[in-house]
RNA sequence: GCGCCCGUAGCUCAGCUGGAUAGAGUAUCGGCCUCCGAAGCCGAGGGUCGUGGGUUCGAAUCCCGCCGGGCGCACCA
């Protein structure tokens, strides 16, 4: 349990007590009351804005209200001291007994520490990657992949029932291009000289084995046949192969999806027409002509009537086409059908992770969800900004057209998945990210994951020493949970406990905001608290974790070290990163 | 022209959805290894939070106007 929700509950209980005693008017609305750590640790361990929020309701001045509340809080066993400060903050200093209980709690819960029941098992759908099945994943996909996966893990830790979903765009013109490109490679495999890959087809080498496999399976049966005969076959085969490749790329990053949804399957099952009729029945469809876009010259613009969705009724800037002028469905139409499908599968909470170049699409999709679910469905679109690949401070050039773009796989092989994942998550998703391949490979302090991992490695080192020093002792977490924590009295020790005790709250905050990067910052702070304590022991031998002559003290301190290791480990687990025990 | 994102220390970025004296890393300078791992620690300097208003007990945070940057703007996916 997040200790600050616990403290908030204590405050609300105290207020009720005061109401019953007639010291405060009854019926105070505590919705805006919060208990949180003060920015400055000098102000204590927990602060509440209760007096500022409630004084008005009670017809008092904030300070006056604070006096009454403070007196009541003072009597709580977990509270050592209460102070009133500033405009009416009530600051509490929590007792050592409280912190000792927190430490015991961490060790007792083990790997489950930090888990929250905030989600109450509610379903959440996180759709991410959804790269077109036309080639291997490139480096640009990696951020969304890592972000989506970490967000999903974070939500799981916060108590949600999460589904990781990949939407396969296998219905558009691009997969026909894929089929034709594979056909060319098929001819090549049968000995034909195909020369240079024509403009408009995919030139990548990764299609060579696809053509070869088709040649081996089917021989020359498709040679000299019209496209209409082989297109479907080649398309299906190539898409399957591309998805195998993508799945392998994702596996290299440690990512596994629960559900792969096919756009083509939606189209073929008639779901697109269904969604259009669904909206038509609501009176949200009409035949109309869209204005030419302003400010951007579209040379071949011609006004023609199309089937349009009244997106403007739901906050979009213009109405959106569901059918092209040739009568075919637009991508937006199938995306609507897809999101309605997700909703009908029970996902009222949907998260889509997109690249920042799709920012212009957010409004229309949000509008669509409102229309499709009568406002009951929620969609949060997380945009991942571009990653600037650097090499020793110089920007790296990527060229997709030349077929020599940097693949995700190349990058994983070069720097390792854990490093890649951590770096991608150290920045807010909507901020640009510089990724310097050389600096990261150096494993220097330019790489933030090493700082955190180093703390873990040091903790493991202490654990090894303890096993040598106290061979007769049970050093399991459950045994250490029973250590005498009252022996931990140094400021830095308590500061570390305080830091560790904040983990569950950090998980909740990050999960609620859909922002995994907060955990990266938290872990950095945690590592700093640990390194600080370590170095205090270097300067002052009294503070060393282990002393052979003082087994009880050593056990208490080892417990603290183990707790720190545990928190670092579970925090990194959210990122899908496994820390090294030795570096 | 419209929409979205972003302007915080020299540089790269946090800032807990409105809280107290705005913080890290890096860089610069000064200290700390006979001692649990110095890939670390401690300290110093460095800021009109782009700018002008507004909302209120209180604004880096919310609202509006400018300035400066990025992305996207029929029927493509």
DSSP, total strands: 15
> Class of the largest domain, according to the CATH hierarchy?
Alpha Beta
What helical percentage do the residues reach?
40-55%
Distance between the termini: 33 Å
In oligomeric terms, what are we looking at? Answer: single chain
**Secondary structure category:** alpha/beta
Instruction: Name the CATH superfamily classification of the largest domain.
Output: HUPs
Task: Sketch the major β-sheet.
Answer: 5 strands, parallel
How much of the sequence lies in strands comes to 5-15%
CATH architecture of the largest domain, by name, is 3-Layer(aba) Sandwich
Rg calc: 30 Å
Describe what this molecule looks like in 3D:
- There is one protein chain.
- The protein contains 21 helices and 15 strands.
- With 583 residues, the chain is of the alpha/beta class.
- The strands form four sheets. A five-stranded parallel beta sheet has the order 7-6-5-11-12, sandwiched between helices. Strands 1-2-4-3 form a four-stranded antiparallel beta sheet. Strands 8-9-10 form a three-stranded antiparallel beta sheet.
- The longest helix is centred in the middle third of the chain and has 26 residues, at 227-252.
- The two termini are 33 Å apart.
- Residues 399-404 have low confidence and may be disordered.
- The structure holds one RNA strand of 77 nucleotides.
